[in-house]
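batch_manifest entry 22 of 60
target: Ribose import ATP-binding protein RbsA
source organism: Roseibium album
requested by: lab member K.T.
priority: normal
notes from requester: please return tokens only, no post-processing; we will run our own comparison against the previous entry in this batch. if the run fails, retry once and flag.
--- input ---
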Amino acid sequence: MPTPQSEMSGHNPGADSGARPPLIELRGITKKFGGYTALDGVDLKIGEAEAVGIIGDNGAGKSTLVKVLSGVHRPSSGTMLFRGQKLTLGSPLDARRNGVEMIYQDLALCEDLDVAQNIFLGRELKKNFGPFRVLDRQAMTEAAANDIADMGLDFDVEREVGQLSGGERQMVAVARALQFDPAALLMDEPTAALSAEKIRKLWEMIGRLKQRGVSILLVSHRFTDILNICDRIVVVRAGRIAGEMMPHELPPAQTMAMMTEMMTGDTVGNGAEA
Ligand SMILES: Nc1ncnc2c1ncn2[C@@H]1O[C@H](COP(=O)(O)OP(=O)(O)OP(=O)(O)O)[C@@H](O)[C@H]1O
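--- output ---
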């Protein structure tokens, strides 16, 4: 881990700003898989419109943390609060009902449906046809085309998702999540398959979401993602929060070291995706 704990600040300005409770708060969250403790007493706050970056070694518990927040895993113990109210998430659908959307690493898209159908999956637009309510394909296609254009992209929303590049699929997954008007968007390694150009588009889009008041939780091994997107960086180590810091608190030399570490192992723009 590039940043020693002693250099991390303990404050949490995004979560503590104003009188309002944080959007999401975890208190003492523990998650055990059999005898293995993947999360061990995690306390975490995510403020309204705050972008929190999660970093940590392989196996530290980052994905487990995101899965607890998105209702995939039920914690073994601990409390989750949403806008100050205790909340138990039984499923990702529960999380969605509470305004928490997750972009999964496998993106959870239907390969044989087109982009518009994927974006509106589960929330299909309908119109009256005599006494019936039928799918309004035209309205969905137009709305999906607008969503994709809003993201600064240009591709045919009538193409099957199975024909798209990894980066285009990623953007479809984000567009789909946004249909649910989330208060928080959780992303686990969203740029792993993206080209440099699409990474920048994703950063811009996340910036716009933050301006609209959406909170972001981002797990990424790419420090450039974290430094470009996040207001606060939380370090997870062996299932615990090892510390946190603000991006501007990183000494320039350390920032450079982080970037260099990332660039040598995983250069932005050298990915296979076009
Ligand atoms: N469903 C599961 N059953 C058993 N063990 C699990 C399960 N999910 C995660 N673990 C274990 O919990 C630990 C934390 O896993 P997690 O996927 O959260 O780590 P991570 O920080 O996201 O790692 P990476 O950066 O490699 O993706 C690992 O040791 C992993 O093997």
